Amino acid sequence: MLPTLPRRALLKALLVTAGAAILPLSARGRAEQPPSWNNWSGNQSATPKQLLYPAAENQLADLLRQSSGTVRAFGGSHSFSPIVPTDDTLLSLEALNGLRGQDDNGHLTFGAGTRLGAASAQAWQVGRSFRNEPDINLQSLAGAIATGTHGTGITLPCLSAQVGALRVVRPDGEAVSLTAGDGDAFQAACCGLGALGVATQVTLRGDPAYRLREHTWTLPLDEAIDFVGANRDRYRNIEFFAFPLGRTAIVKTMELTDQEDQPLIQDDSNDLLEMVCELSLRAPWLTATLQKLVTLFVSDQVRNGPAHRIYANRRTVRFNEMEYTVPADDGLDCLREVCERIRDQDINVFFPIEYRYTAADDTLLSMFSERAGASISVHQYYKQDYRPLFDAVEPIFQRFAGRPHWGKLHSLDATRLRPLYPRFDDFLALRREFDPEGRMLNPYLRRVLGIETGGRP
Hints:
Blueprint: H1 7-18, E1 37-38, E2 45-46, E3 50-52, H2 57-66, E4 71-74, E5 89-92, E6 99-102, E7 108-111, H3 116-125, E8 128-130, H4 141-146, E9 163-169, E10 175-179, H5 184-190, E11 198-204, E12 206-208, E13 211-220, H6 221-231, E14 237-243, E15 248-257, H7 269-282, H8 287-296, E16 301-306, H9 307-311, E17 319-327, H10 331-344, E18 353-358, E19 373-381, H11 387-399, E20 403-404, H12 414-417, H13 424-434, H14 443-449
Parallel strand pairs: 3-5, 4-5
Antiparallel strand pairs: 1-2, 6-7, 7-11, 8-12, 9-10, 9-11, 13-15, 13-16, 14-15, 14-18, 17-19, 17-20, 18-19
């Protein structure tokens, strides 16, 4: 979450600030035996009757035909919402990976279980880069497009809108190939929540390989908001990380460059971030001071390098996340209210709020369907109860007509989601065509799509 920090200097300052009030941080309990499946943060788990690992599309099709009950697939397990869990059959896409081919237009086809980081590195090796990427790249391609995962840039689309073709195995075992020529069926499958079937291949539109210049620096929070509002159209990529209690921010911009690559500095920021989160957990009265202190040790930094290396950040400190996307022009006003709410209620959260832009697209259910968006991501350290924070800010997102990220935590059901998506009912009709028996629907999907258990899907 944080740029590279000078470890020794910050460590010394934190210890002085914490003093003797903090208990030793080395005492850690032994983790319980993990369940059959759990996600990255540990807030979602499942103990299915079957946990299967198909190695090829035909094997996957056979498993679908032979199974009964609900079927869900998982990739990188980086979703925080209950979009994956089922008590029946869970399928891993891990073996369906790797670059499968490249066409004359530079479009790249991958196994759907390929992790985004591996896919973008393989694209670079054949002279291509993806149009845009998120800053976490551990997700599978299937999971990333199914949930509308995105990077930042007001003219740049989310991953779902970068899909050129898609191959999906329906719950009855039939494999279908979809392209833009298939109209709404393709646009539904590109951000399909895993509700239409199981993706086996994803073709992404590639650009000629490019390099990026990343600039990172700190500003007082109000100045950062003004800067981003005035410059969102100037930079290819722009985002910032707001610390509401400390009233500071870390700003990041990216631009195309032909300059030589700069070696990446050894990154100790994850160790520091976890230590600060532990301090904040034990001594909440220090959180505002810690937020100010951390930004004091973020130097003005510039990095040049291949696009896929600049986009990605190594994140090892676990958290839970809520993200809503509001209309792009309303984003900063919404963010101001969120920051005020956190300060007014004195909510203990060290993790900064991430703010990004994404272009509109033609998918039926991405957060950017038919409107450009400003995405506001609120995080809470995984050892802390996220509900006080998320419950406090979610009504603000909803008042700004926010659309929740499908892979992140939210409380909305179909009644409140339908007015937010012009093509919501079109998606439901196509879902019935692909999965008339509702076998791909777990309780989360039944809630967000408005399909009663035992009722007609």
